[in-house]
Amino acid sequence: MGSDRRPDRGEGSVWAELFGKDEKNAKLADRCRILFSLNTVGASRGTTMLWETRPPPVHSAEPRPWISEQETAATHLERNLQEIDAMCATGLVAARVQVLVCEAIPGVWTDWMDSMLPNCGGRKDPLKSGGEDNGELEERASPVQVVVTANPKTADVCHDLKSGFMEQRMQDLVLSPPYLTGNKVEKGFDPSVKTTHRDLISSDDHDLYVAFKWSTLVTVRAINGFLQASADLAMAANSRDSKPQSKEEEEDGVTVVLSNSASTPFLIPSFVRMSYVSEENNKVAKWRMHGDFFHPAAWEICKDSFDMSWIPESLSGSGGVTPVCKGRKDCGQWWIYFAEEQMPTTPEIHANEVTAPLVQGGSNFIWMVTEKQRQELVKLKTCVNDAGDDKLARKECGDFPQGVIPLGDLESFIMNFTPNTALGKKHSSTRFPGYSRAEERKADREKVRERKQLKDQEDIEKALFDYTIYPAALFHKDATIKAARARDFVLTGSKRDPDAIGPQKVKSAYYDVTITKPREATSAWCQAISRKGLCTLYADYFRSSANDHCLEACGMLKNWSKIEKVTDEL
User: Fold this and answer.
1) What DSSP line would sit under 483-511, residue for residue?
2) b/e per residue, 244-253, with b = 16+ CB within 10 A?
3) What is the pLDDT of residues 511-570, one digit of tens each?
4) Which DSSP string corresponds to 402-446?
5) CA 239, 240, 244: angle at the middle one, nearest 5?
6) What's the whole-model pTM score?
7) Where are the beta strands (DSSP E) in 55-198?
8) Cβ-count burial of 283 within 10 angstroms (0-12 exposed, 13-18 middle, 19+ buried)?
9) pLDDT tens across 132-160, in order?
10) Do residues 258 and 267 lie in contact, with contact meaning Cβ atoms separated by under 8 Å?
């Protein structure tokens, strides 16, 4: 999934300068090269001042100065850099960070960011490295590059959070499509060749690109989950090239068969931002309905924002894109398929109108692409750019990628939005989660009014219908129930009892329980494994082992659990 071109790792190379020298003068080990593109717009305004203040002293033995609430952006930036440095410390990742700013920032901040990444080639701490100091920033290669994306004329537009300016710059720098240079693009061009300025580290070859806003916390788990999901989708496409689609798959309304043909859907794993909800927020009534404790919740999606799909053979083993499903029937995985665009509150919703996310249903605030996915996106965007206003030519270019999330690793695609300022804000009257079913929602509200269920409780009615608070646990439950019900409808077919309520042939073992027959321990244990991301972390065991206890919780059981008929014995 990464770049075919590997870096020069010999003596005197930038690689050797960043990651040290080998004692035997042999080539250093290759690593997965990740470019982190960091959008800092909004990190230096209002109550989140950043560049106007001073960073903590670099590698100082003195106690750290107190960082006030006015400098919260500094703590978010520090947490992200610590996580990136931990990735480099494994010896498996070579990370570079491209910090995108609207205007030049003080050099002390660049020095500090460089010092936060000692394992990635930044300035080492003499106290921890036995007195070794790899020199000042100006004298060596650095894993950090600060890029001023605006000029004096466009600086004000860049600072405007509604403009979508930096979101577009971030997409351009990561994708580096050939038409950006203004030269004519030849037919049959090589999408792996970048034509952007060579001084930009984004112009180098990388294996994975992570673009995120300063307020989003990037994690090792998210990167691991994204790479595994991308490998799974690639495996699904490769394995079905030689197999025709069966009649059952054609008639099945929930099965999506991938292949490498142009007509197949282009799927890229995507992320959802969540923030911790507490009683401190302004719409207390809404929170209490979900429990009196802290929990992560989304505000850009709801239960109507997604559908469920079963993708056959979408499981990859260890060692790259390798088959797991050979000789196994009904082998694959359930995927959350975004049916709507994510709908943030103002000002971000306006930025999304100007610069749409790369992936349909995806997010502008955290997105990732592998090098192979980047190349496909470059081909698509170049075709659209060449087509101009010609609608027929644009149609021939194909569809933009669709956002998906693997059900069994859902929590790895939930990204922490740290400032916690979005929750409790009202959405635009025309741009809100669930917009595709606005009429049904309106009818539900009218029913509540007619029944007088919320009489003289306007605050609760507003909290229910005007504000979106979608807890992560509810997201997991809704997705699981949707998938189980969709499969139940397929299996019952024309024999379905129209008067029956609930599932008739298959059910979710964890969620479809009653008071008289509570769930047994194994399903709860498996559910905890899934929520902690262990289905992916230990993918080799769960996918190839004869132990099938956790297949359902890991989203890998097509037909769910059979409903056992109970007969009363008198």
Assistant:
1) HHHHHHHHHHGGG--TT--S-SSEE-TTT
2) eeeeeeeebe
3) 887 666 667 888 889 999 999 999 998 888 888 877 888 999 999 999 998 887 655 454
4) EEEEEGGGGGGGEEEETT--STTPPPPSSS-TTGGGHHHHHHHHH
5) 150
6) 0.90
7) 93-101, 144-148
8) buried
9) 666 677 778 889 999 999 998 998 999 99
10) yes
pLDDT at 47 over 60: no
Residue 548 structure tokens: 């099938």
Please state, in angstroms and rounded to a whole number, the distance separating the CA atoms of residues 447 and 453.
Answer: 9
Distance of alpha carbon 122 from alpha carbon 120, whole angstroms: 6
Residue 262 clears pLDDT 80, i.e. is over it? no
d(CA 399, CA 267): 10
Three-class DSSP labels, 232-265: HHHHHHHHCCCCCCCHHHHHCCCECCCCCCCCCC
Tokens 């809100």 belong to residue: 432
Which is it for strands 306-312 and 332-338: parallel, antiparallel or unpaired? Answer: antiparallel
* Both tokens assigned to 105: 């920032």
Could you read off the pLDDT of 451-483 as tens digits, one per residue? 777 666 776 777 777 778 888 889 999 999 999
From CA 556, how far away is CA 560, in angstroms rounded? Answer: 9
What pLDDT, on the 0 to 100 scale, is given for residue 218?
Answer: 92
Contact 155, 163 (CB under 8 A): no
Q: Is residue 494 very low, low, confident or very high in pLDDT (cuts 50, 70, 90)? A: confident
Nearest to 503 by CA among 517, 492, 514: 492
Q: Are 300 and 272 in contact (CB under 8 A)?
A: yes
pLDDT at 195 over 70: yes
**How many residues comprise the chain?**
570
Token pair belonging to 566: 């109970």
Cis peptide before 55 (omega within 30 of 0): no
Residue 157 φ then ψ, to 5°: -65, -40
496 close to 567: Cβ distance less than 8 angstroms: no
What's the CA angle centered on 133, arms 132 and 136, to 5 degrees? 175
**Terminal-to-terminal C-alpha distance of the chain:** 62
Cβ atoms 401, 360 nearer than 8 A: yes
- Residue 36 β-bridge partners: 97, 210
Give the three-state DSSP class for 387. Answer: helix
Residue with tokens 């799909």: 309
* Cβ neighbours of residue 111 closer than 8 Å, sequence gap 6 or more: 58, 123, 137
Q: What's the CA gap between 332 and 559, in Å, rounded?
A: 11
CA angle 100, 101, 107 (to 5 degrees): 105
Distance between CA atoms of 193 and 170, rounded to whole angstroms? 18
